[in-house]
Amino acid sequence: MTSVLVSLVTHNESKDVEHLLPSLFAQTHRDLALFALDNNSQEGTRSTLAAFQRKAPIPMTLVASKENLGFTGGHNKGIEKAIETGADWVLVVNADVTLPPELVERLLAEATEPRHARVASFTPKVRRAEGPDLVPTDRIDTVGFRMTRSGRHFDIAAGLRDDGSFDRPAEIFGVSGCLALYRTAALREAKISTGFFDDDFFLYREDVDLAWRLRAFGWSARCVPAAVAYHRRRSLPERRRLMSAVANLHSVKNRFLLRINNAGRDHIQATFPKTFLRDLTVVGGCLTVERTSLHALKWLAENHDRLLEKREDIQRRRTVSDREILRWFGDDPHGGRLEDGA
Fold first, then answer.
1. Crossing angle (nearest 10°) for helices 245-262 and 304-317
2. Residue 235 in contact with residue 142, Cβ under 8 Å?
């Protein structure tokens, strides 16, 4: 049976954990282990995780970090654990997700097909959940994400009613980090000096960075709509004013980090007109309405030399050209998918 390590990173999410873990423990695929890292929660999440550990029907490792390692640092520890234990796959999950019993089994049925040997990551069809009880809805949260030439990225079909339009398996640019099945072999190949997920990101856009790097290293991603899960989406573009200053700061920083890491010369030249205009808008916002994010620009300047060294390593190791990857960057809100048989 194919071994899967589930990597869960929490921060003040006790109530969500109470919904997620029973759905994880009920999976029909039984060759599972859970690695749960708590990022210094202050409201009881560690106690909740410890209570579940005592009765967990699968092997469960609980790490209580004394500092907040972020999404990237926490999941990097989980991926390291997967490699150490010889797991074939890592299922990265957010605490605000619930999983039907057949979720992992259906993902693996597609992921283990020989024709998908160079597919690094798989996403189910993720529908939205609402409220503290994660009540399922019929609205799509993500079926993968699409890239634009202005340097932005969006979850495909986000907010649309699930009417069956996205029921065919498809190749996509990359998968959302809220719930993603990664091939351990691909993650080993894509690791850089700052981790599997780039720890410079800390949180937000790190899944996009990893997807772009995997593409450049010759891997791809797929959506498996026969597998369905539910996620309460908290971070949306229209909710930016409601997000914390720390979250917005990382969002600004990571917009630029994405291109520093991954955009080669051909990509920069092809997208410059649109990225430059968007960059002006972002910097203007930092100078006026969101001055707390100015530190993001300062951080980029202070780390300039180190970031360019990391970029040089990534660009040197890539096997796929900018021109080939650019076909995934467009402005069609219904694009970003290559359906099987299309």
1. 50
2. no
Q: Which residues of 126-135 are buried (b: 16+ CB within 10 A; e: fewer)?
A: bbbbeeeebe
The whole domain housing 271 covers 238-320
| Residue 60 to residue 92: CA distance in whole angstroms | 15
Q: How far apart are CA 80 and CA 76, in angstroms?
A: 6
Is pTM beyond 0.85? Reply is: yes
Provide the number of structural domains found in the chain.
2
* 136 in the same domain as 97: yes
Measured CA to CA, the distance from residue 34 to residue 335 in angstroms comes to 35
Cβ 230 vs Cβ 126: under 8 Å: yes
> What are the backbone dihedrals phi and psi of residue 318, each rounded to the nearest 5 degrees, phi first?
-70, 150
pLDDT in tens, 62-113: 999 999 999 999 999 999 999 999 999 999 999 999 999 999 999 999 999 9
Residue 215 within any structural domain of the chain: yes
Give yes or no: residues 205 and 250 share one domain: no
- Report which DSSP code applies to 173: S
Q: Tell me the C-alpha distance between 54 and 33, whole Å.
A: 14
Structure tokens at 1: 């049976």
Angle, helices 265-287 vs 245-262, to 10°: value is 160
Q: Are 189 and 260 members of one domain?
A: no
> Tokens 């899944």 — which residue?
207
Eight-class DSSP state of 161: B
| Amino acid making up residue 169 | P
Please indicate, yes or no, whether residues 144 and 63 belong to a single structural domain of this protein: yes
Residue 173 maps to which CATH number? Answer: 3.90.550.10
Cβ proximity of 208 and 215 under 8 Å: no
Q: Is 121 helix (H, G, I), strand (E, B) or coil?
A: strand
